[in-house]
Amino acid sequence: MHHDSFRYNDGSNSGYYDNSRVRADDAPKELQDRYKDVGPELDDDTLRQAERNLAKDWDQGTNPDAEPYHRRKHNCQDYADAVEKEYNRLKEEEEKKKEKEKKKKGSG
After folding, report:
1. Computed from CA positions of residues 44, 63, 68, 54, in that sequence, does the dihedral angle turn out positive or negative?
2. Alpha-carbon distance 57 to 53, whole Å?
3. DSSP for the chain?
4. How far is residue 96's CA from residue 108's CA, in Å, rounded to a whole number?
5. So what's the pLDDT on residue 76?
6. Which of 10, 33, 50, 94 would give a disulfide with 87, using CB separation of 3.0 to 4.6 Å?
7. How many folded domains does the chain comprise?
8. What is the C-alpha separation between 20 and 61, in angstroms, rounded?
9. Residue 15's domain spans which residues?
10. Cβ-contact 51, 6 below 8 angstroms
């Protein structure tokens, strides 16, 4: 099993942990330096917004009624999948807005 989390360009990171909290990794820096990045590089601002949008559904520090961590069905991989889905939704929304503005400028 592996741990899924997000690392930002400013050196900060975020993930979902077995205490049902979304937080920075508290592993020693020496261990974190050995982590491997996988998947595409994501835009930090959009990624942070995606995490904010999902906080109420995942982080019991934000919402005590959020579903608790479960290593098989509500874990860090599920959180990362949900964040990536929200990230993609935000990016699509951003693209549609740009296209709309482009059409508006072209017809004006």
Report:
1. negative
2. 9
3. ----EEE-TTS-EEEE-TTS-EE---S-HHHHTT----S----HHHHHHHHHHHHHHH-TTT-TTSPPPBTTTBSHHHHHHHHHHHHHHHHHHHHHHHHHHHHHHHH-
4. 18
5. 96
6. 50
7. 1
8. 8
9. 5-107
10. yes
The residue ranges of the chain whose pLDDT is under 70 are 1, 107-108
Q: Report pLDDT for 2.
A: 82
Amino acid at 49: Q
The predicted model scores a pTM of 0.89
Q: What is the pLDDT of residue 17?
A: 96
CB 75 within 8 A of CB 69: yes
